[in-house]
Amino acid sequence: MAHHKLKSKECLNCGYTFTDADNYCPQCGQENHTLNVPLRHFFLELLEGTIHFDTKSTRTFLALLFKPGHLTLMYNEGKRVRYVPPLRLYIFISFIFFLVIGLLPNKPASEKNKSPLSITFGAISSNELRGVKEEKLDSLFTAMKIERGGFDEYVIRKLWTITNEGWKEFGHKLLKNISSMLFIMMPFYGWLVYVLHRKRKRYYFEYLIYSLHFHCFLFLELLLFFLIISIWSNKLILIIFFLWTIIYLYKSLRRCFYQKRLSVLLKSFLLSALHLISLVLFFLLTIVISIALF
Has residue 5 been placed in a domain? Predict the structure, then answer.
């Protein structure tokens, strides 16, 4: 039970008179908890009820960053009370990640509607479509001999919409879709780890928990990376964070699955390569879906 919850003297549901030790009503089962509290108390309960932000949270974040594989090992061994549950941890960290990324400094106002890159489809680029009025698109299609109602027209119209309605709005939609993509990617990565360790004859669920914790680490690591490069951009930072990821993956696999160093090292590089390829493919698919839905 959360440390900041206030109890009432009697059950608000059935009227049963509580003793000091009653956390739940023995008659109807409702929690002994009154909502008639100051606003400060309400926010403390909300925060604690969401992530149990106390010594448990501090212990969890430190283990996640500096003890690779420890959280997964403890969870799979049944030693779970000391740490924040994996799914709750993932939801909270991913929420903070996308919130902070959205709050990082943007480009100057004069550049907000400029495209960060030029996309070319067929013989036309996004820069050529900027400022073109929608009613003039038909004459453009006729001049370029583009089949009406076909796939080429559909793509160019989408490109026109993104270019002229602003890349920033499209970027927000893309970021939202990326968060969904990463959530789908997580069980897939767990399956990759499961396939590489199938000789252990353990259930897939253990590898899903490993994937949850590893992606929680990646979110925290990327958050630190983006915060640092927003202040000081240097190629050395990218190298440091890349090496940190590889070393973390190696140590977490070795701690969780008890294998020889060479075997773990090879699997670390293989998993990194497969993970990167999967991320690229999932990311490209997300871009296509985002363009189609924009």
Answer: no
Give residue for tokens 């799979």. 76
From residue 163, how far is each of 142, 177, 293 by CA, in Å? 21, 19, 15
Contact present, 134 and 160 (Cβ < 8 Å): yes
Could you tell me the residue range of the domain that residue 100 belongs to? 55-108+167-293
Which pair of tokens denotes residue 175? 């970021």
Q: Which residues of 262-293 are buried (b: 16+ CB within 10 A; e: fewer)?
A: eebeebbeebeebbeeeeeebbeebeeebbee
Burial class (CB in 10 A: 0-12, 13-18, 19+), 193: buried
pTM of the predicted model as reported, rounded to 2 decimal places: 0.66
pLDDT tens, position by position, for the chain (294 residues)? 444 455 667 777 787 887 777 778 887 877 776 655 455 555 555 555 555 556 778 889 999 999 999 999 999 888 888 888 898 899 888 888 888 877 776 544 444 444 445 565 655 666 666 666 666 666 766 666 666 666 766 777 777 777 766 666 676 677 777 777 888 888 898 898 888 888 777 888 888 999 999 999 988 988 888 888 888 878 888 889 888 988 998 888 888 887 778 888 888 888 888 888 888 888 888 877 777 776
Burial category of 3 from C-beta neighbours within 10 Å (exposed 0-12, middle 13-18, buried 19 and up) = exposed
User: Do 188 and 141 sit in the same domain of this protein?
Assistant: no
Question: Degrees (nearest 5) of the Cα angle 248, 249, 254?
Answer: 100
Tokens 């036309």 locate to 124
Residues 62 and 157 in one domain: no
* Same domain, residue pair 122 and 104: no
